[in-house]
Write a structure and sequence with these properties.
CATH superfamily: Glycosidases
Strand content: 5-15%
Catalytic activity: Hydrolysis of terminal, non-reducing beta-D-glucosyl residues with release of beta-D-glucose
Helix content: 40-55%
Protein name: Beta-glucosidase
Number of strands: 14
Family: Belongs to the glycosyl hydrolase 1 family.
CATH class: Alpha Beta
Radius of gyration: 21 Å
Shape: globular
EC number: 3.2.1.21
Pfam family, one: Glyco_hydro_1
Number of helices: 15
Structural class: alpha/beta
Length: 451
């Protein structure tokens, strides 16, 4: 099998809230995630992200570790409330200076910066003005995006405007399991998602206008879906599920509009009250890479419980390995995502913006090392599946493992560990895990060690 190309981006990913700490230093205002984590009972282990991994002060150490592991890319996010504390208006220069230092340090270590503009940490002030339910948030986001792009665009080529708009709108605004802890129902989630997709559009245009050779990608969470069995009714459920769960979030950007059938189902025969003239044009185009996060393979079945959608999550087949999330370890699903995305969105190169394994049992052994056996196996299987897709002719440009280091895992707090690097949350000591050493070997051999 051929190896990955020399210019392939081998990296890892984090989010500002999860690693930076310094939640109220140097002019940063509270985000909705600061408020969520400071509310008793919302984070499962009672923790918060006030210090997290303290990357705000330890970024040089972390960049050196990335270089040691052979990475040539790092996907990080920028905290909107660190740049414009009131959400729109006056710029906080100290916030811009921090990200400028981070970018310079990454480049000095031979690491390509991949910047995400929004990874869920909405400024409190924007939330108090309606948050993503307020269409004005798109314009406020554009001011923030242009501020950052102007400041860093001479050094940052790769930009991802929005991370997982589907997860943010569903878990944050529909179910209330994430910040801002809103329980608003499906119409609320759809409207939030629409504004997030518009925000992607305005930021993509800003990159093309302000960055010479700038490259824009998406960061949508994409699962591999399968029918419960070969009965036609379940195959039809699968078709609808893929429209609602994948195509809904990617078609406006890469095809110029929502899937028509799904739009009619979602809005009771086409009641598109959330749309305005020109929205399709604003969401569409100016995006170069189809970036996706992948964690799940899910089986679906026909269901009358949700009459408007006609599908529901079904039972996972027996005998499949499961991870700490009780979701399956199924590398075939990863491979199938490459295949399906490359067919539906032909002509757009793919990049994996997140992929990883949770394991709360990761710990430092008596020998001072972290032997994360499950993640080592996962990494071999999933990068192997990606290599198979590459050998089948699919254009894949990069892979960002989630995560560089153990961090604050949203509503699960510090219980769920994802890192290639172990973090001691008492001392903040970093220790490369066995999976990190394997990743270094994969990168050094351009995947040849997997044969």
């Amino acid at each position: 099998m051929k190896t990955f190309p020399e210019n392939f981006l081998w990296g890892s990913a984090t989010a500002a809230t999860q690693v930076e700490g310094a939640w109220n230093l140097d002019g940063k205002s509270p985000s909705i995630w600061d408020d969520f984590a400071h509310t008793p009972g919302l984070v499962s282990d009672g923790s918060n992200a006030d210090t997290a991994c303290d990357q705000y002060h330890r970024y040089s150490e972390d960049a050196a570790l990335m270089r040691e592991l052979g990475m040539n890319a790092y996907r990080f996010s920028i905290a909107w409330p660190r740049i414009i504390p009131t959400g729109h208006g006056e710029i906080n220069q100290k916030g811009l200076d921090y990200y400028s230092r981070l970018v310079d340090t990454l480049i000095a270590n031979g690491i390509t910066p991949v910047a995400t503009l929004y990874h869920w940490d909405l400024p409190r002030a924007i939330h108090q003005s309606g948050g993503w339910l307020n269409r004005k948030s798109v314009g406020w986001f554009e001011q923030y995006a242009r501020t950052v792009i102007k400041a860093l665009g001479n050094r940052v080529k790769y930009w991802i405007p929005i991370n997982e708009p589907n997860v943010h709108s569903e878990l944050g605004y529909r179910h209330g399991w994430h910040a801002p802890a809103s329980v608003g129902g499906r119409y609320t989630a759809l409207q939030v998602n629409h504004h997030l997709t518009l925000a992607h559009g305005v930021a993509a245009r800003a990159v093309k206008e302000l960055v010479s050779g700038g490259i824009v990608g998406t960061g949508v969470n994409v699962a591999a879906f399968y029918p419960m069995n070969h009965e036609p009714r379940h195959a039809e459920a699968l078709r609808r599920c893929e429209q609602d769960q994948t195509q809904w979030y990617l078609d406006p950007i890469f095809k110029g509009g929502y899937p028509e059938e799904a739009l009619k189902r979602a809005y009771d025969n086409g009641d598109d009250f959330f749309m305005k003239k020109g929205d399709d044009e604003l969401m569409f185009g100016h995006t170069d890479l189809l970036g996706f996060n992948h964690y799940f393979s899910i089986w679906v079945e026909e269901s009358d419980a949700h009459g408007y959608q006609g599908w529901n999550y079904g039972k996972t087949p027996e005998g499949l390995e499961k991870n700490a999330w009780e979701s399956v370890v199924y590398p075939q699903g990863f491979y199938d995502c490459f295949q399906r995305l490359s067919v539906r969105y032909k002509g757009f190169p793919l990049i994996v913006t997140e992929n990883g394994l949770p394991d709360p049992s990761d710990a430092i052994s008596a020998d001072g090392q972290c032997h994360d056996v499950a993640r080592v196996g996962y990494l071999r299987k999933y990068v192997g599946a990606m290599k198979r897709a590459l050998n089948d002719g699919i254009d894949i440009r990069g892979y960002m493992f989630w995560s560089f280091m153990d961090n604050f895992e949203w509503a699960a707090g510090y219980h769920m560990r994802f890192g290639l690097v172990h973090t001691d949350f008492q001392t903040l000591k970093r220790t490369v895990k066995d999976s990190g050493r394997l990743y270094r070997e994969i990168i050094a051999s351009q995947g040849a060690c997997l044969d």
